[in-house]
Amino acid sequence: NGAGDFTVEDRSGRNLHFGVREIGMGGICNGLALHGLRPYAGTFFVFSDYAKPMVRLASLMQLPVIYVYSHDSIGVGEDGPTHQPVEHLASYRSIPNITVFRPADQTETAAGWAVAMASEKTPTALILTRQNVDQIAETSKEAMKGGYILSDSEKETPDAILIASGSEVKPCMDAKKLLREQGVDVRVVSMPSIELFERQPEDYKNAVLPRNVKARVVVEASKDFGWGRYVGLDGAILGMESFGASAPGSELFDIYGFKAEPIAATVNEVIARCS
Length: 275
Fold this sequence. Notes:
Blueprint: H1 22-34, E1 40-44, H2 48-60, E2 66-70, H3 88-93, E3 99-101, H4 106-118, E4 124-127, E5 148-151, E6 160-164, H5 169-181, E7 186-190, H6 194-198, H7 202-208, E8 216-219, H8 228-231, E9 236-238, H9 249-255, H10 260-274
Parallel strand pairs: 1-2, 2-4, 3-4, 6-7, 6-8, 8-9
Antiparallel strand pairs: 5-7
């Protein structure tokens, strides 16, 4: 705000009106980064496919461009399956040398922005929701580590571990309360960035996800590709196996099981399987 627009008549502004041309937007941002500036670009996450060739080049050229992608899941709702980027997280996470960061609330969003601004040779994709999300009291700058214990079990060894990113973190916190009433004590791990978590020391990763806890459930409203390393053969992934549907986002989260009750039921199933 207040920085002016870059136009043919006035080149002093800092805001560029790219129009609906994501690949051109990405190419221009790469050029700006090569000239020592710190550009960011934004669009709906489903349209990130159009920008991807330039995102790939930014990763290849070690340019710290920031991409702000909104409307990140089935929460888009009424626009229907064409606008619900269920496979895009897996696609972006597969790119070498990029940090994909999907925050759960404003605290984690600030942490993701701090990571992006501190990066010198790695682009960052901030993956944000369309729908409002609750601020979670337990979130912190620990999110800069990519994954951290958001809410621990009372037991030294939890009965199970819930792992989630973005808008699915709060339903996991709700599921934890429900499970506690059933006598099941779980740990909730927020993992906004797999890439940042994998850069942490092994002792830290083992402290967050101890190897002796086999009962693990990942919850993310996207294709489950890539999460298998964290749940192993005994755990479960609550993800998307379709392109979604046309309905209000809150209804879709109910339909596809991203609520406390089905999450808790899945945890109990995994615990029984691991017993």
